[in-house]
Amino acid sequence: MTDLLIKLIPLFPLLAVILNGLVGRRYSHEVAHRLAWGSVGLSFLCTISVFVDILRTGTPHEVIAYQWIFGGDLTINLAYLVDPLTCIMLLVVTGVGFLIHVYSVGYMHGEEGFTRFFTYMNLFMVSMLLLVMGNNYVVLFIGWEGVGLCSYLLIGYYYDKVSAAKAASKAFVVNRIGDAGFLLAIFLIFINFKTLDYTKVFAQVSELSPEMATAIALCLLVGAVGKSAQLPLYTWLPDAMEGPTPVSALIHAATMVTAGVYMIVRNHAIFDLSTTAMTVVGIIGGLTALFAATIGLVQTDIKRVLAYSTVSQLGYMILGCGIGAYTAAIFHLMTHAFFKALLFLSAGSVIHALSGEQDIRKMGGLSSKIPWTYRLFLVGTIAIAGIPPLAGFWSKDEILAHAFTHDHYLLYGMAAIGAFLTSFYMFRLIYLTFYGASRMDHHAEEHVHESSTVMVGPLMALGVLSILGGFMGFPPEHGWIHEFLAPVAGVGEGHDASTGLVLTLMMIATGIALLGWGLAHYFYSVNSSMPDRLAAQFQAAYATLLNKYYVDELYDLIWVEPLKKLGYLLDWFDRNVIDGLVRAVAQLADLAAAGSTWLEKYVIYSGLNVIGYGNHLAARQWRQLQSGMVHHYAAIIVAGLFLLAVIIQLFMQL
Amino acid sequence: MSFVPETSARWIALAATLANLCVALPLWWLFDPQTSQMQFTEHVAWITAPPIYYSLGLDGISLPLVLMTVGIMPLCVLASWNAITTRVRGFMAMVLVMETAMVGVFAALDFVLFYVFWEAMLIPMYLLIGVWGGTNRLYAAIKFFLYTLAGSMLLLVAIFVLYYYGGHTFDILALSQGTYPAQLQMWLFLAFFAAFAVKVPMFPFHTWLPDAHVEAPTAGSVILASVLLKMGTYGFLRFSLPMLPDASRLFTPIMVVLSIIAIIYGAYMALAQVDLKKLIAYSSVSHMGFVTLGLFVLNQQGIEGAVLQMVNHGITTGGLFLCVGIIYERTHSRLIADNVGLAAPMPQYATLLVIFALSSLGLPGTNSFVGEFLVLVGTFSWSKIAAAVASLGIILAATYLLWMVQRVVFGVPSPHHLPNLRDLNQRELVTLVPLVLLIFWIGFYPNPLVSRMHQSVTNTLASMSREKVAPTAHPSAGGTAPLLVDSDEQLEIQGESR
Questions:
Q1: Which of A283, A537, B112, B166 stands the most exposed, by the fewest C-beta atoms within 10 Å?
Q2: Residue of A nearest to B443 (CA)
Q3: Is B290 in CB contact (< 8 Å) with chain A?
Q4: Can you give the pTM of this predicted structure?
Q5: What is d(CA A37, CA A34) in angstroms, rounded to the nearest whole number?
């Protein structure tokens, strides 16, 4: 029964994709959206049933759908593995996915490509489900590329916008760099283990040499860095905000971008073997968490601020992986999915209310006009800032505490500063958007309205999860989620910190978060001329942050432009050098033919001159490529056939 | 064909190609995947001395290629329905001659017969480009003709040399079982290389391809890309590997390096193109690099991936060229700059174009992923660095194809062309949809295809290392059976001729 349900989970959205994609034009938007969210809802119900079963029995399920690729000693099945880790991912993906689908019905209402939007969203669900459910690396990779494709299609949803098309291509191509790394990791795993099934690989993982483990882990990391938007491949994610807001919430915050974290946790057995790889993972995570947070400080587009906060929060998860806090990383992945989806969808509600305005400099004073959106955005902000008892506090604090108690003081420092900055820029967003005087233009102000129930409903559900979700991990290191994930993510080494230390660290974390809030309050409520004064005083630093450290420009300069130039250079090379050589050979043949013509004319005077004549003709033809006298070719063919006949004659006599 | 009126030529050609498809299709089910022996064989004496037979047969390598060929041809006829307005009769006749020759090449089991079909392809293709092509068609046609003719001459010489050293027979299977001196193998390999590498085309013998593609009519481009390019790789697989195993091993590093250069170089070239057909032509150079790479890493995954990739490239690139033809009929331009923003006026076309592009860049779930994955797995066990560099090709493929899609599909169409941008009609849908179905079928369930080529690939590899393996000890005993049969026949033949 459970096996059947597992097979059904990705099948429902797939059916919806096929129906909406092929015959969606024939029926109304009403039918299309019901199919879309209904199918995800059904998947969610199946997931719950499977989850309950695993909770009760504790045994993972492995289900083979069919044999997919084989060649030589390589066999790959389209097969699923559902264990506690997959369960958590499935619940997040289908649960949050369902809410976002429902929200989208309201948000996308009246859009021209309504059915197309839901087709892509469902296709995304299918891919994401394959990604987390696959029992081997190749199924993971199908999902991995599939979600990238859907991300591409949905970023480029407004296809007449050139910026959207560019952002879409950028996202896909940057991701492909990561994918190539991931692919290499898959090959390395295959030649070492002769199989690509997780269970078989992890069963013999201890035979791996440390160097090989490092190589595999680093290749996997390249994949994770691309998909989870870490340094140095994060630049696509902020641009991805060109897509509709529900897409940003579902794909570019809650689910797809966390695939890298899932992949590292899934492969933690390999990462555990290599201290080098773990150190690199930790440093990349820490740097990203801090780096993205600094950019978030000064951005003025509400979605871009959230995008940089996503990059930063993903950094925390990767950092968690790097210090071996796998459960904490997944825990943060889950709470982040709740509060970041909430934040994005609330931001969408704000944008909806303001008829498309995204610039926070043109907002302000919205708290009374759209009260529910405001309250829920505030819940999300408190959660992400890490103020207890909301969800973000528990998971983020656990990563920080783990870093501190396991002597990663540098990483702890980075993460703590990042947490302070996060709290600051998120409350900055609250103050600029919802408090103070209105800076809206009059046209927009007249139309401000609270969103419909179909949009606010999912927000409330996410709000509740953002408030209560953290208690799954309470008490720290010994909560329900820790026990549930213990068979997959491993139990942290003894190393239990004293309760006193844990409490002290919690208080520090809370203090940091409150400090960020306080500073935001001071800057944007008490002394609101302060930010401008600071920006004027530290102009260079401000400009650097505002321009995102000029990383995009740098990449253009060192990577994109040379790539194009090399293409043009090779094109010139191809036309002039290689083709030139071909023409030179032709001329050489021409010369030789002239010589042989002379020879034939004055030395040999026999039946052979037929061959010579053919040769001569060929050479002349080379010279007169442009003139193209077809009938000469007929002569060559005749000569060739004659030659053939002569040779065959010769053989017959032998 | 030459006796029918111009107006019915299209219908007759369509009927002929469809009839051919109907005859060929049952072979898929009748084919026995458990054996590597030639099936559906035909063996008629043609010339007694020297012994040349009209000898045909299919194994797991040629079956998919033959089916792909006969499957593509009706689409070519349909694609030319309105595009060809002058000398329709001649055009359709040439297309049909092409089909005969191409199927013949894949099915021939006699080397002379093979060569006859091989050369016979040249003339109709030359005419297709030279008569019905674009403005610079003669230059392109002659370049194509001479390039390939030069290679073919050496192939002919090699065939005669093999005849002498292989026991006075042109039987391909018998010749594959013979052993030849290492020095001779080297020369023969180079002669084969001249013929096959031009056809593939491998770097640096590829410059005829962009010109030929740009000038050829749509059907010509599709035939060229889908089928003709496979002749070269098929030749390597059918002749170079089993007949010249030592030389193949010797040249492997060079072939791998040339393949990788082709992959990267072709992709870079594609990046720089402003003409859609040239872009796809260079992408073919890159994709065919994957095929030769898979062949010459000389292992099961590599070769199976390569054969699969031959079929895949035929489907996907054929589809891309059909797409270019369709847009050319509307805007009369192949330039990217003239064909922008097609998503709004031509949603169905845009969808299909994106699917072909995604298949071409090897997205999982499409056909090319399976093939490229197998090739890369095979390459990886030969050399990690080679596979790593080849993987760059995957990134570059995404770059040039999505950049193309970004410019062609997205954006706002030019008002000048907008009135002409009608979405696909029924006929055009019929030409493209079967290819899309094949893309997903092979992408999600390649098993039937791979299992049919399995034994033949195993057999090819076994015949490469036959000195080391005792015939009876090998698990695929089927592979050794033709040896006995053929050498018996061969003895008889020799007896007769003396």
A1: A537
A2: A68
A3: no
A4: 0.85
A5: 6
Residues paired with B45 in a beta bridge: B53
Q: For residue B275, list its beta bridge partners.
A: B335
- Segment A86-103 shows an average pLDDT of 92
Position B288 scores a pLDDT of 93
Q: CB under 8 Å to A98, separation ≥6 — which residues?
A: A37, A40, A41, A43, A44
List, for residues B291-315, the tens digit of each pLDDT value: 999 999 988 889 999 999 999 999 9
B269 to A567: CB separation less than 8 angstroms, yes or no = yes
Size of interface A-B (CB pairs under 8 A): 172
H or E, element range at A464: helix A453-468
Residues 6+ apart with CB under 8 A from A372: A450, A451, A456, A459, A460
For chain A, say whether B146 makes contact (Cβ under 8 Å). Answer: yes
DSSP B60: T
In chain B, residues 224-253 whose CB comes closer than 8 Å to chain A: none
How many whole angstroms separate alpha carbon A358 and alpha carbon A374? 15
Q: What share of chain B is helix, strand, coil (3-state, %, to 5)?
A: 75, 5, 20
Q: What share of chain A is helix, strand, coil (3-state, %, to 5)?
A: 80, 5, 20
Closest CA in chain B for residue A219: B388
> Strand pairing of B39-47 and B52-58?
antiparallel
- pLDDT per residue over A290-318, tens digit each? 999 998 888 888 899 999 999 999 999 99
- Whether B363 sits inside 8 A of A644 (CB atoms) is no
Distance CA A237, CA A178 (A): 14
- Nearest CA distance, B378 vs chain A (angstrom): 9
Report the distance separating Cα A543 and Cα A562, nearest Å.
26
Tokens of B137: 């068609």
B351 contacts A161 by C-beta, under 8 angstroms: no
The 10s digit of each residue's pLDDT in A7-23 is 889 899 999 988 888 88
Tokens of B478: 């089927």
Q: Does B149 touch chain A if contact means CB atoms closer than 8 Å? A: yes
Q: Tell me which of A92-101, A392-401, A553-562, B259-268 is least confident.
A: A553-562
- Taking contacts as CB-CB distances below 8 angstroms, the residues of chain A near B446 are 68-69
Does the beta carbon of B381 lie under 8 angstroms from any beta carbon of chain A? Answer: yes
Which chain B residues are Cβ-neighbours of A172 within 8 angstroms? 398, 402
Backbone angles phi, psi at B35, to 5 degrees: -130, 155
Q: Distance (Å, rounded) from C-alpha B339 to C-alpha B332?
A: 10
Distance, first Cα to last Cα, chain A: 77
Distance CA A399, CA A415 (A): 9
**pLDDT digit string, tens, across residues A43-55:** 999 999 999 988 8
CA distance A286 to A291: 8
Q: In chain B, positions 19-38, which contact chain A (CB-CB < 8 Å)? A: none
Instruction: Tell whether A109 lies on the interface with B, counting CB pairs under 8 A.
Output: no
Query: Degrees (nearest 5) of the Cα angle B25, B29, B35?
Result: 120
Q: Using the beta-carbon criterion (under 8 Å), do B373 and A68 form an inter-chain contact?
A: no
Q: Please report residues of B whose CB lies closer than 8 A to that of A582.
A: 147, 207
Measured between beta carbons, which residues in chain A are less than 8 angstroms from residue B454?
71
The whole-angstrom separation of Cα A535 and Cα A540 is 9
By the CB < 8 Å criterion, does A641 face chain B? no
Where do the structural domains in chain B lie, given as residue ranges? Answer: 6-467
ipTM (interface predicted TM): 0.80
Find, in chain B, the residue whose alpha carbon is nearest to that of A156. B410
Least confident of A222-236, A480-494, B405-419: A480-494
Decide: B67 and B25 in contact? Cβ < 8 Å: yes
Which of 120-159 (A) contact B at CB < 8 A?
A: 138, 141-142, 144-146, 149, 152, 156, 159
Question: Does the N-terminal peptide bond of residue B364 adopt cis geometry, omega within 30 degrees of 0?
Answer: no
